[in-house]
Amino acid sequence: MEKGLISVDRWTEGSQVYFLTHLHLDHTQGLSSAWARGPLFCSRLTAKLFPLKFPGLDLSLIRVLDIGSWHSIFVVSPSSGEKTFVEVSAIDAHHCPGSVMPLFREAFGCLLYTGDFRWEASNERAEIGRNTLVKALKDDVVDILYLDNTYCNPSYAFPSREVAAQQVVDIIASHPDHDVIIGIDSLGKEELLFHISHKLNIKIWVWPERLQTMHLLGFHDIFTTKTSLTRVRAVPRYSFSVDTLESLNTMHPTIGIMPSGLPWVVQPLKGGGSLPGSLFSSYQSKWRATSGTQTEKLKEALGSVDRFHKCIYSVPYSDHSCFTEIEKFLNLVQPSNIRGIVSSSSCYVDPLYYFGHLCRANQPPLRYNQEKRVQHKTVVAAQIKFNVESGRSTKVDRKRRTAEVGILGVHMSKVDALRRARRGAKLAELEILASNVTCIGLNSECIVWLQNTYDGIGCKEYNPFFYLLILDV
DNA sequence: GCGATCAGCT
DNA sequence: CACAGCTGATCGC
Asked: Which residue has the higher pLDDT, A190 or A414?
């Protein structure tokens, strides 16, 4: 297969055209504000979000792919020097805002790259996605399907996001006097938060950069950075921990909710399928040990909601397709061949293991433009984002550099400050706040307490405490 | 000094 | 374990 034409979610040198499926960090490794390697195709929404994630990026390099419409891209075969074209369309991947599945058609066939995707069957939006895909494919056969195989195992079974969102609403409603902390990422889960806000008629706190994102996505009223306006806060997932929750509970009754597709093994394993025995054992033993029969009662009451800590609920809200959804998707697409995109997981399963029988590799495929197929020898070399284990150097003893002391005694290096600035946090304002802290009502006891708490938890600017005590004074 | 990359962690 | 992500440290330019 000829390399050097097109890369998807891969940013190394050597391609003529680059595609981004969505703006999650693990798909943009290697992409930076200084990007200059070539035209960058993405969805309209991703293009809109780009300046926030990559300020200073040369926007003239961005090419917008509208969902369902076709674009012709001229490329040059590195080997023969021949000019040829690739047609590309985009299907909504329903993973996070702006996420798309690029569909390529060219002389040698048809390729579909799902990126990360969720293929729900039950709602109107999913129906539109399905119709867009059917229309785009027409009579073409997908020769190679690059598949998001994150949950490509029958063990992974979880409900639609609509159902999971209602489970979250039920949990919050059943804790009317509790504060609520929900762990989210920099992009995604907006509809969950919208559902909560809509059903409970409540605003939702998010951190400042996330509010900017929400505004770009068109949400203008339901999100706030003022903690006094709501008891529901969505915080970065990495600042969400048992320690954080326990600390918050020393001040005010607080529950945590983790929306995630990960630890859900609801259905028993069917014949032929097995996961390594250790895969979930530690996770499961954790909540079994701490919650006992209460967990069972809760599971009965709330379906597949689990509680692995007395104040933390885990809800099966996933932005990736579960096994049965992958199956439905494959029944629809019926590709000639499948390649899994996600290979880093220890429970990686080659999609062919479960879905090989759905492939029509033995059938003579009906290809797009048979004539051109004979004339040109170029193929799309979609470079796949494989997390191949590279020979990593052995561990080196690292000396801990003395950290500089920043605002409020929080350890903050220059690197921190830079990263913070890149994320759009207003460092200067925070410093002013800190220097005038007595003027805005925090007494010295409170500051000492804040310093201790802050250092003790080890979370930095996104720590719920931080905004609780500082930004909303 | 800065960006890229790695290791560690959740 | 790791859905996606942050942080600290090192290395090369």
From this structure: A190
CB A244 within 8 A of CB A181: yes
CA A64, A24, A144, A329 dihedral sign is: negative
User: Is residue A344's beta carbon less than 7 angstroms from any atom in nucleic acid strand B?
Assistant: no
Question: Nucleotide B8: nearest residue by CA–C1'?
Answer: A395
Taking the CA of residue A32 and the C1' sugar atom of nucleotide B3, their distance in angstroms comes to: 10
Domains and CATH numbers, chain A: 6-154+321-367 (3.60.15.10), 161-315 (3.40.50.12650)
Could you read off the pLDDT of A380-433 as tens digits, one per residue?
333 333 222 222 333 333 333 333 333 333 344 444 444 444 443 332 333 333
Note the strand C nucleotides within 7 A of protein beta carbons.
1-11
pLDDT of residue A308: 66
Q: What does the pLDDT average to over A234-253?
A: 87
Give distance CA A459 / C1' C8 (Å): 13
Order of strands across the sheet with A71-76? A71-76, A83-92, A100-106, A109-113, A144-147, A337-340
Closest residue, CA to C1' of C8? A400
Give the amino acid at A88: V
